[in-house]
């Protein structure tokens, strides 16, 4: 799970105020703890920061990749086949899980080496991905949040997100923190 500084950075990257998440707590004091160069041509779809390691998925057909970066080390990068559009990612245990947008494939990589270890099928689109430490939590552009098994990606539970009784569609980038699932809405 991300630490509070990493989560604040992730929220800021997606235009969310970290202070709004903890509105009922004491004011937080934030400081820049480092920076990392980023390719301006990347179409970032997923970002995970844990223990000083950054994993990123970048989308677009013919340009999708997964990369792992750590200060002082040469970045690792895996380019995906032209037919795949990389989407959300998460790290659980020693594995990095990466959704594809419309190909219906969950790509599983060794989180340290980025060697692909498995491909698991699913129905529909893949958008956002996070973990609660035991399950993978996925969005698909609808109002559904799907809790899935990391071993076979089967659906174990699903929840419909509603606001004032109406489904909230377009749920995208997901983050999990202390029992909360944070999401943005595509184009909102």
- Biggest sheet: strand arrangement: 1-2-3-4
Q: What is the percentage of strand-forming residues?
A: 35-45%
Distance linking N and C termini: 26 Å
Number of helices: 2
| Overall shape | globular
Q: Structural class, judged by helices and strands?
A: mainly beta
Topology as a string of helices (H) and strands (E): HHEEEEEEEEEEEEEEEE
Computed CA radius of gyration, to the nearest angstrom: 16 Å
Number of strands: 16
Low-confidence stretches: 1-5, 8-24
Mean pLDDT: 87
Largest sheet: 4 strands, antiparallel
Q: Tell me the helix content.
A: under 10%
Structure description:
- This protein is mainly beta and 188 residues long.
- It is 7% helix and 44% strand.
- The protein is built from 2 helices and 16 strands.
- The protein has helices at 4-13, 18-21; strands at residues 44-50, 53-58, 65-70, 76-79, 86-92, 95-100, 105-110, 116-121, 129-131, 136-139, 144-148, 155-160, 162-163, 166-167, 171-177, 180-185.
- The strands form 5 sheets. Strands 1-2-3-4 form a 4-stranded antiparallel beta sheet. A 4-stranded antiparallel beta sheet has the order 5-6-7-8, with no helix packed on it. The protein has a 4-stranded antiparallel beta sheet with strand order 9-10-11-12, with no helix packed on it.
- A hairpin with a 2-residue loop joins strand 5 (86-92) and strand 6 (95-100).
- The chain is globular and about 50 Å long.
- The chain starts with a helix and ends with a strand.
């Amino acid at each position: 799970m991300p630490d509070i500084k990493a989560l604040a950075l992730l929220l800021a990257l997606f235009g969310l105020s970290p202070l709004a998440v903890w509105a009922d707590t004491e004011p937080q004091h934030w400081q820049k703890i480092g920076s990392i160069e980023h390719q301006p041509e990347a179409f970032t779809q997923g970002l995970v920061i844990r223990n000083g390691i950054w994993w990123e998925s970048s989308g677009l057909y013919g340009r999708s990749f997964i990369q792992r970066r750590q200060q002082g080390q040469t970045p690792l990068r895996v380019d995906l086949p032209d037919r795949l559009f990389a989407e959300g990612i998460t790290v659980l245990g020693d594995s990095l899980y990466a959704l594809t947008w419309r190909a219906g494939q969950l790509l599983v990589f060794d989180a340290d080496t980025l060697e692909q270890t498995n491909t698991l099928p699913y129905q529909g689109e893949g958008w956002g991905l996070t973990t609660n430490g035991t399950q993978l939590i996925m969005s698909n552009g609808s109002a559904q949040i799907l809790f899935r098994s990391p071993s076979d990606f089967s659906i174990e539970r699903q929840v419909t997100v509603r606001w004032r009784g109406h489904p909230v569609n377009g749920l995208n980038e997901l983050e999990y923190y202390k029992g909360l699932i944070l999401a943005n809405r595509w184009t909102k």
